Amino acid sequence: MISVQKALQLVLNEAKSFWNENVLLENALGKILAEDIKADRNYPPFNRATMDGYAFLSTDVTEKGISEFSVAGELFAGYQFDKKVNTGECIKIMTGSAAPAGLDCIVQVELSTEIGNKIKFSGEIKPWKNIAREGEDCKKDNIILKEGIKLSPVEIGALAALGKKTIRVKSSPKVAILSTGDELVPVGEEVTPYQIRDSNAYALQAFFQSSGIQVTRREIVSDSPDSLKKVLGEIVDFDIVVLSGGVSMGAADYVPAALLSVGIEKVFHKIKLKPGKPLWFGKGSSGGVFFGLPGNPLSCQVCFKLFIEPYVRKCFGLDNQNLQSYPVLQERVKKVQLDEYFPVKLDNSQLEILQFNGSGDVTSALGSTGIALHPIGKGDVMIGDELIYVPWQFL
C-alpha cells in the first residue's frame, strides 16, 4: 500500500488541460472561465443617479446661496435630458438616470419640500452627492474577470452587464460512471429485501456537476467479467471513468482484471486510507484516467473529494484548495494505522464529529459540511486538537 499523499501525487501527474469551447451565457453556470474578460466601456457609463430626487448644481447653494429651486423638467432612466438647466433650476430625476452635464448633486425626495411652485432642500449639499460617477466602478479595458474562475450566479450577472452573450469556457471532459454489482437496482425501480439502490452514481454525478462537469454516460454493470469488459471497451477513450464497487478482494471483485484486459495501465491499487483503502487508479493509452472506488457510499464520496476533485481542479488550471485546520469538540479514538477521514460539521470555526455506522451507512454524511482527517501518525484526538477539514462544497 502507498500513502494518501503519494497516491494523490500519482493521480495529479496524469492531469491534462481540457480543450476550450464557446457557450451561451445562460449555459455557463458552474463552468470554468477560459479567457480574461475586459470591460467594454466605463462603468457606470455615465454619471448615474443613485436616488430618486432632484438634481442641480451644488454651487448654486454653497456659493450663490440659492435656497429654493424651480423644476425645469423630469428625467427617467434610459432617457436623455436635452434642455439646458439654468442657475436656480433643478430637475426631478429617477434612480438609474444619467445626470445631465453640469449637475453634480442629487437630494433625495424625502429631503425635498415643495413650497408653492418651488423646491427647497434639507441635509448636506456637496458635489457628487447621490451620484455614481462615470467609470468609478471600472474603466474600459480593465480586466473584470480572470481566466480560471468558476462561474457562479454573481459572475453570470456581471458578464450579462458587460454584454457577453457567449463566453469561452473550459470544455467538459467525457465522463463515465459505472456502478458494479448484481445487488444494484436503478433508483425508482422495485427492490427485493436483498438488493440496494444505486446511490453512488447519483452522488458521483452530483460531485461532477458541482465542478461544472456533465456526466456523459452512467449505468449499472453486473458482476460479470464479460459485462465489464464489454462496457469498458466502449468507453476506453473517455477522459475520466469512475467505477464504484468490485475493487477489493472478494470473489466477485472483477474490476481490476477487467480494466487491465482492455488495456488500462495500473498506476496503483490500495492506499493507506479509511474509508477508501481498495482504491484502484490507472491510465489509458489515449490519456484518460480510470478510478476504481470502493462501493460503500462514504468511501465513494471520500475518494472523490481526495483524488478525483483535485485531478479535475488541476486539469482546469484551478489552484489547489487551501485546506484549513479547526479544533474538534469531541474526543476520537485512533482505530487503525491509516489516514482516517470521517464526517464533521463546521460551526463557529469548530468541528463537531458526527456519529455514523461505518462507510456503508447511507446516512453517514447527512448533516455534515465536510470530512476531517485523523492522520496515520497521530494517536487519539483530544478536545481542542486541530484537524484538517475538507469541505464537501467545490470551492
Written description of the protein model:
With 395 residues, the chain is of the alpha+beta class. It has four domains: 159 residues, Molybdenum Cofactor Biosythetic Enzyme, Chain A; 54 residues, Molybdopterin biosynthesis moea protein, domain 2 (Alpha-Beta Complex); 85 residues, Beta Complex (Molybdopterin biosynthesis moeA protein, domain 3), CATH 2.170.190; 68 residues, MoeA, C-terminal, domain IV (Beta-clip, Beta Barrel). It is built from seven helices and 26 strands. The strands form seven sheets. It has a six-stranded mixed beta sheet with strand order 7-4-6-5-9-8, with no helix packed on it. Strands 16-13-17-21-20-18 form a six-stranded mixed beta sheet, with helices on both faces. Strands 19, 22, 23, 24, 25 and 26 form a six-stranded mixed beta sheet that branches. Helix 1 crosses helix 7, helix 4 runs parallel beside helix 7 and helix 5 packs across helix 6. The longest helix is centred in the last third of the chain and has 19 residues. The protein is elongated and about 95 Å long. The protein starts with a helix and ends with a strand. The mean pLDDT is 95.
Number of helical runs? 7
Sheet-strand content, in percent, reads 25-35%
Determine the CATH superfamily of the largest domain: MoaB/Mog-like domain
Characterize the largest beta sheet: strand count, sense, and whether it forms a barrel. Answer: 6 strands, mixed
Number of domains: 4
Number of strands: 26
Question: Class of the largest domain in CATH?
Answer: Alpha Beta
Whole-number mean pLDDT: 95
Strand sequence of the main sheet, in spatial order? 7-4-6-5-9-8
State the end-to-end distance. Answer: 30 Å
The unreliable regions are: none
Please give the radius of gyration in angstroms.
Answer: 30 Å
Helix content: 10-25%
Annotated CATH architecture of the largest domain: 3-Layer(aba) Sandwich
Tell me the CATH topology of the largest domain: Molybdenum Cofactor Biosythetic Enzyme, Chain A
| General form | elongated
- Helix/strand class: alpha+beta
